[in-house]
Automatic annotation (TrEMBL):
<dbReference type="GO" id="GO:0016747">
    <property type="term" value="F:acyltransferase activity, transferring groups other than amino-acyl groups"/>
</dbReference>
<feature type="domain" description="N-acetyltransferase">
    <location>
        <begin position="5"/>
        <end position="170"/>
    </location>
</feature>
<protein>
    <recommendedName>
        <fullName>N-acetyltransferase domain-containing protein</fullName>
    </recommendedName>
</protein>
<dbReference type="InterPro" id="IPR016181">
    <property type="entry name" value="Acyl_CoA_acyltransferase"/>
</dbReference>
<dbReference type="Pfam" id="PF00583">
    <property type="entry name" value="Acetyltransf_1"/>
</dbReference>
<dbReference type="InterPro" id="IPR000182">
    <property type="entry name" value="GNAT_dom"/>
</dbReference>
Length: 170
């Protein structure tokens, strides 16, 4: 990572920027790149519940969770983030126990992908999960047509464990 960017733990002052980054990358990835035809009102409702500044504030103050950001030093913009914590966001509670760790999100702006930022985030997320969830499985969820993300996680030894539905809206 070049000197223009800074990797750090998120703090409460980041909640608005995290919310905006999440929504931007989600739209870029799913609505644009992967062409999922989400109705705008359903996306907005999803973002209000799952990507609001308040939802990020709860995660930041939760001692069982951690969020890291990559910040552009030139303008203070966040270009990527990763969040991790107890495994309770996976849609298969039968296989994922709350004692297990989970990579909840790893989002990088489209124009900043393929520059090593994902690797930098994984280099802090995985050791943190190993420390807080020692000896436990680490889980994550990837959309079945997001082949780029699947390839990225396979590099780190992740394997497909099952399938689940993830619905936004009705």
């Amino acid at each position: 990572m070049d000197d223009q960017f800074f990797l750090r733990r998120a703090d409460i002052s980041d909640i608005n920027a995290l919310s905006q980054l999440y929504q931007k990358v989600y739209r870029e990835t799913y609505a644009e790149d992967l062409s999922i035809p989400y109705p705008e009102n359903e996306l907005d409702a999803y973002f209000c519940s799952s990507a609001s500044p308040q939802s990020f504030a709860k995660k930041i103050i939760d001692p069982k969770r951690a969020i890291w950001v990559i910040e552009d030093k030139r303008n203070g913009d966040l270009i990527a983030f990763a969040s991790a914590g107890p495994c309770n966001e996976i849609l298969h509670p039968d296989v994922c126990l709350n004692k297990d760790g989970e990579i909840n999100q790893l989002y990088i702006q489209r124009n900043q992908q393929n520059h090593g930022f994902g690797q930098q985030l994984m280099n802090v997320v995985l050791p943190w999960l190993d420390e807080y969830y020692p000896g436990r499985p680490i889980w994550l969820s990837v959309w079945f047509k997001n082949y780029k993300a699947q390839k990225f996680y396979r590099y780190y030894g992740f394997e497909k464990a099952g399938e689940s539905d993830f619905n936004i809206g009705q």
